UniProtKB/TrEMBL annotation:
The keyword Methyltransferase applies. It holds the Pfam family Methyltransf_31. InterPro entries: Methyltranfer_dom, Methyltransf_25, SAM-dependent_MTases_sf. Keywords: Methyltransferase, Transferase. It comes from Hevea brasiliensis. One of its GO terms (biological process) is methylation. GO terms for molecular function: phosphoethanolamine N-methyltransferase activity. Its EC number is 2.1.1.103. Pathway: Phospholipid metabolism; phosphatidylcholine biosynthesis; Lipid metabolism. Coiled coil: none annotated. Residues 13-105, 119-217 form the Methyltransferase domain. This is phosphoethanolamine N-methyltransferase.
Length: 316
């Protein structure tokens, strides 16, 4: 059974319904910390007599259905149980799930979501959202609007209940991603975990994804800005390649957007601090134009639409 689990080496594991320790010892061999729980005192003591030599294991006598069994939010990497849920009523299973989901960490979700480069106001589709943990995280931490779909009615009902009273913009729907349709260019990002492996016709699903996604072109505001200024802009790598194509050697092309933003922010702070003096020397209209332009430039560069580069090239 343990070989079916995701990697838990060095991680914090909670074993519910541990019994006399059929799996406790195997879990302890890889886990960083393990808490083994069972509601029968004689049974958990037997487990401890067998596996107590593992110094990373804590043995607890407690009823999993009791609200007295609590762990800190985000303190557990993996929760394992074998044969426990079959002895619980539907309501007990539901209540246990509501409690345990809060105990679990979301480190993997954080890692994956960090790669999405989410921006406030974007719209995200989560295919196979489950109980919505990743969706709440994205909405609460990045200010995005999330639509979560899943085939499981129970999962969606649980997600909807979790969403009650929250201010984040998350919507859930029972839907089959192979049959569901959305208008073209609806979403900025499509996110999915542990779902696509079940889809037989993956190429068809990916074609749907392509239609539903908005193109990654510049915003209308940036397009107008480029047109107004008469700019011909390219990314940092493209500029570097142009220099190489022209015959230059030892070309260095570095993205210095972060450095530029820091300098621009310092200058902006200085101008805002001396607002009255600036207006006295020039005008309020000049002040508003300058500050507004700098703030807009910061927004464009922070969002990734406008980048700033350092280029060095030699003629050998």
């Amino acid at each position: 059974m343990c070989f079916l689990l995701p990697s838990y080496e060095g991680k914090s594991v909670l074993e519910l319904g541990a019994g006399i320790g059929r799996f406790t010892g195997k879990l302890a061999q890889k886990a960083g910390q393990l808490v083994a729980v069972d509601f029968i005192e004689s049974v958990i003591k037997k487990n401890e007599s067998i596996n107590g030599h593992y110094k990373n294991v804590k043995f607890m006598c407690s009823d999993v259905t009791s609200p007295d069994l609590t762990f800190s939010e985000g303190s557990v990497d993996l929760i394992f149980s074998n044969w426990l849920l079959m002895y619980l009523s539907d309501n007990e299973v539901e209540n246990l799930a509501k409690r345990t989901v809060k105990w679990l960490k979301i480190e993997t979700t954080k890692e994956f979501v960090a790669k999405l480069d989410l921006k406030p106001g974007q719209k995200v589709l989560d295919v196979g959202c489950g109980i919505g943990g990743g969706d709440f995280y994205m909405a609460e931490n990045f200010g995005v609007e999330v639509v979560g779909i899943d085939l499981s009615i129970n999962m969606i009902l649980f997600a909807l209940e979790r969403a009650t009273g929250l201010k984040c913009t998350v919507k859930f729907e029972v839907a089959d991603c192979t049959k569901k349709t959305y208008p073209d260019n609806t979403f900025d990002v499509i996110y999915s975990r542990d779902t696509i492996l079940y889809i037989q016709d993956k190429p068809a699903l990916f074609r749907s994804f392509l239609k539903w996604l908005k193109p990654g072109s510049p915003s209308p505001e940036f397009v107008e800005y480029i047109k107004q200024r008469g700019y011909d802009l390219h990314d940092v790598e493209a500029y570097g390649q142009m220099l190489r194509d022209a015959g230059f050697d030892d070309v260095i092309a570095e993205d210095r957007t972060d450095q530029f933003n820091q300098v621009l922010q310092r200058e902006l702070n200085a101008v805002e601090k001396g607002k009255d003096e600036f207006i006295q020397d020039f005008s309020e209209e000049d002040y508003n134009d300058m500050v507004g332009g700098w703030k807009a430039k910061l927004i464009r560069s922070s969002s990734g639409e406008q980048r700033w580069g350092l280029f060095i090239a030699k003629k050998n």
